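Supplementary Methods S3. Complex input for the glycinamide ribonucleotide-bound model.
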Amino acid sequence: MQPTTPSIISPDIPTPQKSSSPLKLGILASGSGTNFEALVQAIADGKLRAEMPVLIYNKPGAAVAARAQRWGIPAILLDHRKYQSREAFDFDIAQTLSQYGVEWVIMAGWMRRITGVLLDRYPERVINIHPSLLPSFPGLHAVEQALKAGVKITGCTVHIACLEVDSGPILVQAAVPILPDDTPETLHARIQVQEHEILPRAIQIAAMGVGELRK
Ligand code: GAR
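Predicted complex, serialized as C-alpha cells:
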C-alpha cells in the first residue's frame, strides 16, 4: 500500500477495465452537495467510470437538489419526517434506488442513520464520507469535536458503511493539519477540498474489490 500524495492514504488505485460497464451510483445527500458535485465532475472529467442515475435528498430546499437540476440528474425528495420509522424510510430509499438501477449507494453528506433494510438490499455497497480521521470523532459535529479535542491533525474518511454510525472498512483517508487560528468553518473548508479528492478514488477502489481491504 503506497501513499499517493503526502496527505492521502489509500490502497493503490486499480485501473478500471475499459470494457467494464460504468458503475451505477445512487447518491444520498442532505445538504449543500459539494461532494455530490465533485463526483459528477469526476465522472464528466473521465476520472471515475460511472453513471449517476438518481440523487435522493431528505430536506426540502436542500442546495444539492439545485446542483442535480443543473446537471440534469433526477433528484427525488424523500422527507424522513413523513415516515413512521427509520426502516420504512430506508425501504422507500431502497425501492427508489432499485427502480433507477443503482448498484452502489453513496452517502455524500447524508445526515441520517441507516438501517439493515438498506444494507440488506446493498450489502457492502453503501459508502459513506465523514469529516474526520475515523475512528476518531464519529457522529455529528466531527469538525468541532476535533477542534475541541485539541488534536493537531484531522481529515476525512471514506468507508464501507455498517449499521454502527461512521464505522466499517476504511477505503481512503486524507489528513488535514489544524492551524492555530482555525474555526470550524475554515477547517471544514480545507477538509472538503480533500473530501472531493478522495471520494471518487474510494468508489473506484471499492468497486474493484472490497475483499482486498480485509486482508
Ligand atoms: C461533508 O463534510 C461530509 O463529510 C459530512 O457532511 C458534509 C456534507 O457536505 N458528512 C457527515 O458528517 C456524515 N457523518 P456537502 O453537502 O457539501 O457534500
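The first strand starts at residue 8 and ends at 9. Residues 129-208 form a domain with the Rossmann fold fold (CATH 3.40.50.170).
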